[in-house]
Amino acid sequence: MLDNIPSEIPPENLAALAEDHYFAANPPPRDLDKHVALARDFIDYHSSAGRRLVLITSGGTTVPLEKQTVRFIDNFSAGTRGATSAEYFLEAGYAVLFLHRQFSLLPFSRHYSHATDCFLDFLREGPNGSVVARDEDTAKMLHVLRKYRDARDRNMLLLLPFVSISDYLHELRSVAQLMRPLGPRGLLYLAAAVSDFFVPPERMSEHKIQSTSAADVFKRNNNGGSQAATEEEETFDNFDSSPSVPRSKRLVIDLDPVPKFLKNLVEGWSPQGMIVSFKLETDPAILVHKARYSLDRYQHHLVIGNLLSTRKWEVVFVSPGNPDHWIRVPFRKHGGESGTSVAGTEQDEPIDPKSLPEGEPEVEIESLIIPAVQELHSKYIRTVEDKGQP
Ligand code: PAZ
To answer: Bias regions of kind Polar residues — which residues (predicted)?
Structure first.
């Protein structure tokens, strides 16, 4: 972290200093150069066609505890929001650069992965040793396959994976900087669930963190220690049933805050693109306040607030100069009279999760979010083009 900041550095330069420090200290992902080359070609292709392009970030980031990573901290995000949004952006004519957590949900294939059924359950053996879709799944699978093939064949979808928080930040910075030629036609839709904390490299163990001191004793013995000490140490480990584990045997993880780079993104990396961030909370009482605070602090264009328990049913749009705008999928109140439809934008506070029906909504909320974002993006482009700047 930035200890010893020289007092003569003006506060407005602190963000740049934090950026330089973070990116110098945390190594880039191995494939960054390859990804940058792919992203550059993709962006240039769509930029010269005058097309809108959206960078979607999706899925969670890992926080490695070791440099040769065996253990890491992770979060809940499966990438549903990002992958589903990508399909609706493609539908709306956007080229989509999909920066996603490796092995999280992908547009189109999401319909058949991470499902309750194994994907093999959608298939059966056909004539002459062929493999075909089950009859009841054929129509939907063909529909999804055609859309996927169309997006790929027309070079409208680029998939770039990341794993850790530092991979994510390196990739985001590089891709956002490449988006400059798009001007206001570039849209950044930051739906990834990014860790707020990390282990800085100077405090990260190179090798797997040990749960016993056997390795220390091994090293000591190699330097002339005794066999008796080895046996004594090896029998004591963290899996002992002793109710009170001494502090020396615990794994205490000390995390630093991840620098907030939204300011750098807004002011430096992608100064002309429209920037949409997401804010996730679990406490309904603070959601709108936190979303508005983020908007005021980073001065970007839209914060989409959502609650963990209701994120597939409602979100709130918080944007400069506009009242909070709730978007909801129509639903019938759980336990309410049949036909009682609660929907729309009238209710201006979070819905009670207990009133929601069981299971998944019939409508994907992204089918409502993307047209609303698209409308704001159109306004944004007009404003920038009229004024000559955002
Ligand atoms: O990936 P998912 O569909 O399970 O969840 C989506 C989400 C809740 C991660 C996303 O909508 C979101 O709020 N992302 C930002 C999280 C945050 O950093 O506050």
So the answer is: 219-229
